[in-house]
Amino acid sequence: MKRLSLVTIALGLFASACGSSSTSPTTPTNPTFTATLSPANEVPPITNAESTASGNATITLVTTKDAAGNITAATATFVVNLSGFPAGSTVNIAHIHEGASTCACPVVVNTSLAPGEVTLVGGSASFSKGSITVAPEVAQRLLANPGGFYFNVHTALNAGGAVRGTLTRTN
User: Fold this and answer.
1) How open is the CA angle 101-39-115, to the nearest 5 degrees?
2) Cβ proximity of 84 and 64 under 8 Å
3) SS3 171
4) To pair with 162 at 20 to 30 A between CA atoms, which of 36, 54, 65, 134?
5) Is residue 45 within 8 Å of 152, Cβ to Cβ?
6) How far apart are CA 47 and CA 33, in angstroms?
7) pLDDT at 116
8) What's residue 102's pLDDT?
9) CA nearest to 118, candidates 55, 164, 75, 40
10) Which DSSP string do the residues of 3-34 spell out, in sequence order?
11) In terms of Cα–Cα distance, which of 77, 67, 72, 97 is closest to 31?
12) Are 78 and 104 within 8 A, CB to CB?
């Protein structure tokens, strides 16, 4: 009887080990995107006092999916670092646009940043915005083609955008 029990346990362990494959692809549940922000990426490129600015943005997307794998809800968290702005620069808004890096394309995800909420001290600032709602269809397109989106920050001097960067998926 002991021999039968040992064989049963061994077969059970073997079967459970064979039930999953270490080579099967996995999709992170919280993909992260980054953008390197530059005034030269704006359309047209910035050539005024804010042309020395730079920054980076990290955007984490959290999705909820149904049993079929369709995105049913999504939120984003933004972490943005800015530097090189001249004294007196004021950040107004920041968001994700959908479209080529060569256009002024429509906003699809707004950080909900309010004008004057971020103060540039010594030409630098950092801000975070979390739990920003993203439409499920936008989240799906972002996952499928992150390079078709860009993030930019607008200032009082450059209302159309001061620094911009195309999104790249990092995980």
Assistant:
1) 100
2) no
3) coil
4) 134
5) no
6) 27
7) 87
8) 86
9) 55
10) HHHHHHHHHHHHHHHHTS-TTS----SS-EEE
11) 77
12) no
For the chain, domain boundaries = 27-169
Q: What letter represents residue 73's amino acid?
A: A
**Encoded tokens for 32:** 């992260």
Closest to 127 measured CA to CA, from 161, 92, 159, 166: 92
- pTM of the predicted structure, to 2 decimals: 0.82
Tell me the C-alpha distance between 116 and 114, whole Å.
6
Determine contact, residues 155/24, Cβ cutoff 8 Å: no
139-152 pLDDT per residue, tens: 999 999 999 999 99
Instruction: Give the type of residue at 54.
Output: S
> Each residue's pLDDT tens digit in the chain (171 positions)?
555 444 444 444 444 444 443 333 445 579 999 999 999 999 999 999 999 999 999 999 999 999 999 999 999 999 999 999 998 899 999 999 999 888 889 999 999 999 989 989 999 999 999 999 999 999 999 999 999 999 999 999 999 999 999 999 999
* Whether 73 contacts 64, CB under 8 Å: yes
- Identify which of 142, 167, 153 has the alpha carbon closest to the alpha carbon of residue 34: 167
